[in-house]
Amino acid sequence: MPIMSVYGNGGMLTTVGDWLKWNAMLDSRSMGAPLVEALETQGVLNSGRKISYALGLQVGDYRGMRDVSHGGSTAGYQTFLARYPEKKLSVAVLCNGTSPSAGGLAAAITDEIFGPFPQASPQPVADAIELKPEEMQKYVGLWRSETTRFADRIELRDGKLMMDGTPLIPLKDGSFRLA
What we know:
Blueprint: H1 16-28, H2 33-39, E1 58-62, E2 65-74, E3 77-84, E4 89-95, H3 102-114, H4 133-137, E5 141-144, E6 151-157, E7 160-163, E8 166-170, E9 176-178
Antiparallel strand pairs: 1-2, 2-3, 3-4, 5-6, 6-7, 7-8, 8-9
């Protein structure tokens, strides 16, 4: 298959120009406010718990700002687009490689734009445990979720396990929580 025919796992191929049009549509709501609201409405599990995934977009909070994002990868390429609607800012990262993480780079760019994080007192996590550096090392690499089948890269940075630029908190039961 010619390399020009490689599409992402969602069957998508995009360009920076496409992302500019996409962002303009979301910002202007030119295809209708109900469409944008539907795309950005977070899912709800049967238990009633709200999740960050909406209709193809991740909706969350980054540094106190509403964050609407999505990333993708295939055949050694990665992309990540983060939008901060209230700030009228989007950060797009396209990588011709699998490392470093496109999401982590987008977070680093956002941090450069908005300056250093305000120092807040960390809130303790009840079931959190400490891992030694050699224990953390065994989690470094590319991991695929059994539930979603999506892959995420875990890195060890400054003595912390990080997934797409977000610290991971190890828990007593052997799982992790995003900080």
